[in-house]
Design goal:
By secondary structure, the protein is mainly α. It contains 17 helices and five strands. A five-stranded parallel β-sheet has the order 2-3-1-4-5. The chain is globular and about 50 Å long. The C terminus is likely disordered.
């Protein structure tokens, strides 16, 4: 995050930093100054060249609520040699990664944990990453600000579907998003971008207007698994990276409300997307038969010959065969709350009685979500 974006975030939240997190805030301030210097250098070197970078109009957007399997599908689609994606370094250094990628020494890799704290999934600088992190660090309004200030929820709810953003803010969002994608595409504009952010679920109509030939792969999962896993996600992110200590009750309400807002927007916008440009994938079926489900996605969305990527996908599936997903349990009250608040989603996608949609008749593998 640049210094200007960092100060704007602090001002918007009235500098409500918990005393125990002041050292973290001071370190972020120092890093933000360095980010600003590097961002200025990259702009001086690259802006003119970026203006001429064409963007393909047919990216693939992987959408779905957090903890629904979007990461798994994103990583599998990114294995196709005809595809490219934003990696972790680009998303954590979005204002200067074109320049600083060549300046950061290899030993910096030790600063990143090998696994994500919320689910033990492998991470690395070169792994596919969700672009909402980049937009957040570039200073755009986003619900991800809840990580920094978990006691001031909700954060920027108007940024989820984008429909309530004032026109100048929406133009800034578009310009920032497209510039970041040009940076990611630089030198490989012949490749199709594969992008993943749960937040995009609520803004598919806007993304389709930006990219009329875009494809959307929508991942759904049993809400009784999504809910506790989402609580763990937001709590762990706020605990490890926040400027305040999270409040369990506020996080629970945030997860419930955000899911409903996300899917109210998604279902209202979905009819605008041509039927051959969007498809659904059930997480339970994806982990049971990843190769078969991915082949179906390729066929339904006309993504080209799946066999070009099949061997890479099969190898990744073999490598992940021993992965163990987190196990969660819900009280009867929590179960009733989820089924009540998210009931329309449950019935629409086959989870009406609170049980997972039946997978195909194949052995289920435990893969990353």
């Amino acid at each position: 995050m640049t210094l200007s974006a960092w100060l704007e975030l602090l001002r918007a939240n009235r500098f409500a930093v918990s005393p125990s997190r002041i050292p973290l805030a001071m370190s972020v301030s120092a890093v933000s100054l360095l980010n600003s210097l590097l961002a200025g250098a990259q702009a001086w070197f690259w802006n003119r060249r970026l203006a001429a970078v064409p963007l393909r109009s047919d990216p693939i957007f992987v959408v779905g609520h957090w903890r629904s399997g979007t990461t798994l599908l994103h990583e599998l689609l990114a294995l196709d040699p005809r595809h490219s994606c934003a990696d972790t370094y680009a998303c954590v250094a979005p204002s200067h990664f074109l320049l600083s990628r060549y300046l950061v020494p290899t030993w910096m890799g030790v600063l990143m944990p090998r696994r994500r704290p919320m689910d033990n999934v492998r991470i690395g600088w070169d792994q596919p990453q969700e672009d909402e992190w980049a937009l957040c660090l570039l200073g755009l309004p986003t619900v991800y600000r809840a990580i920094a200030f978990p006691r001031r929820l909700p954060q920027c709810p108007e940024s989820l579907a984008l429909t309530r953003l004032p026109e100048p803010a929406l133009r800034r969002w578009d310009a920032t998003f497209l510039k970041f994608l040009k940076c990611v595409s630089l030198g490989q504009t012949h490749l199709r971008l594969v992008l993943k952010s749960p937040t995009h679920t609520a803004r598919i109509a806007h993304l389709w207007k930006l990219f009329p030939r875009a494809r959307f792969v929508h991942v759904v999962r049993d809400p009784l698994s999504v809910y506790p896993s989402s609580l763990r996600l937001w709590t762990s992110l706020a605990r490890d990276h926040g400027l305040q200590r999270p409040d369990a009750g506020e996080v629970r309400q945030f997860v419930l409300d955000t899911f409903m807002e996300m899917y109210d927007a998604f279902e209202s916008q979905r009819p605008m997307i041509p039927a051959d440009q969007i498809c659904d994938v059930h997480y339970e079926r994806l982990v049971a038969d990843p190769v078969g489900q991915l082949r179906r996605v390729y066929q339904q969305l006309d993504l080209g010959d799946f066999d070009v990527a099949r061997r890479r996908v099969e190898k990744r599936v073999r490598d992940m065969a021993d992965f163990q997903v987190n196990q969660h349990s819900l009280s009867d009250e929590q179960r009733r709350t989820v089924l009540s608040c998210w009931g329309s989603f449950c019935h629409r996608y086959g989870y009406g009685d609170g049980t997972a949609a039946p997978p195909p008749a194949t052995a289920t593998r435990r893969l990353a979500g």
